[in-house]
Amino acid sequence: MSTTQRDYYEVLGVERTAGEAEIKKAFRAQARTLHPDVSDAPDAEERFREVVEAYEVLSKPKTRNLYDRFGHAGLRGGGFTPTSFDLGSLSDLFAAFFGDDLFGVSARPRRSRGADVAAQIEIELVEAAAGTSRDVPFPVTVACAVCSGSGAEPGTEPTTCPTCAGAGRIEHVSRTAFGEFIRSQACSGCGGLGRVIDHPCHECQGTGRVVEERTLDVEIPAGIHDGQQIRLSGEGHAGSLGGRAGDLYVQVRIRPDPRFVREGNDIFATVDLTMTEAALGTTLRVPTLDGETEIEFESGTQPGEIRVLRGRGMPVLQGFGRGDQRVLVNVQVPHRLSEQQRALLEEFERSAGEETYRSDEGFFEKLKSAFR
Ligand SMILES: [Zn+2]
Ligand SMILES: [Zn+2]
């Protein structure tokens, strides 16, 4: 008896015109999500039965043809019986269908690239503006110098694995309801390498690799942004079996500078003028990324005014020019007054009128008054 009345194409999620390869691909994809190692869904087994059944029918031209023409009833009439399988051995069934590489486990250890290494450094904003360099220490796996990465004690050689005779794989033949399946597994005797080391190197205990503390002088380009990474190609962990080394990624963190706020390549700062400095005019030194600079404030400087220092911002990373520095004027009003100060200000207030606080006409006001 069939276990489902659902449309087999729908179960696999393919079109009715799907080719053999497409059906197989869809089956694998469905099966993967229902694998007991992956899925916790209570109906995973039920759904897996459906998927297997749909695949059984659609993967063979004879049954697919019957199903296309007569549906489920046609299959029953044609004597089709879906495979019944022991649910306890679902994992084995997967292995029978797909081998061990359902989840991308490679069949044989290959020459592989070494892993990347991450390191982090912190620099000051002014260093980021000028560009700098840092000694960056990091632990890295390198080929063992004593055995040149072979893992065997100098003077000895690795020998052929007796378990797999050097193949690195062991094949199991199993008979199932689907027929005979050859299931291949990495050899446990040699871990799939095909060779065993009888006399492991004393330095690396036979692994062929050792961990070394390395320090590199890393150039940090001017204009770098907080959190950006610098890649040093080939400075990561050593590859296995002679594969190329991974890369070193140095993440650069920029310590916040209390004097500045960075926005892209622009820098914002504030400057405090006392009420009288703003009224009378003054010259103040303000911090920039390249040290202090003098800014002249005219008499009548207003709070909220912004002075732009062109080209005094951050350099453009790997580009030309620099952003700007914007300086926001803050005017400080006294919190406390002595008797004498209060008297002075009161006298000032009596003498002040509308004219005292009137701003100079701007260009448009002048233009308007010209037409009045
Ligand atoms: Zn060694
Ligand atoms: Zn072996």
Structural overview:
With 372 residues, the protein is an alpha+beta fold. It has ten helices and 15 strands. The chain has a four-stranded mixed beta sheet. Strands 1-9-8 form a three-stranded mixed beta sheet. Strands 2-7 form a two-stranded antiparallel sheet. A hairpin with a 2-residue loop joins strand 10 and strand 11. Helix 2 packs antiparallel against helix 3. It binds zinc ion (2 copies). One zinc ion binds at residues 144, 146-147, 151, 201, 203-204, 208. The site of one zinc ion has 8 residues, from loops.
How would you sum up this structure in a few lines?
The protein is about 25% helix and about 25% strand. It is an alpha+beta fold and about 375 residues long. The protein has a four-stranded mixed beta sheet with strand order 10-11-15-14.
List the helices and strands and how they pair.
Elements lengths: L7 H5 L7 H15 L9 H15 L2 H17 L12 H9 L18 E8 H6 L1 E12 L15 E2 L8 E8 L2 E8 L8 E2 L12 E12 L8 E4 L15 E8 L5 E3 L2 E9 H6 L1 E7 L2 E7 L8 E4 L15 E8 L6 H13 L2 H4 L5 H9 L1
Parallel strand pairs: 1-9, 11-15
Antiparallel strand pairs: 2-7, 3-6, 4-5, 8-9, 10-11, 12-13, 14-15
Bound molecules: zinc ion (2 copies).
Descriptors for this entry?
372 residues; binds zinc ion; 3-stranded mixed β-sheet; 27% helix; alpha+beta; single chain; 10 helices
Give the number of helices: 10
Helix and strand pattern: HHHHHEHEEEEEEEEEEHEEEEHHH
Strand order of the largest sheet: 10-11-15-14
Question: Which quaternary structure do these chains form?
Answer: single chain
Q: Which ligands appear in the coordinates?
A: zinc ion
Largest sheet: 4 strands, mixed
Total DSSP E strands: 15
Secondary-structure-based class equals alpha+beta
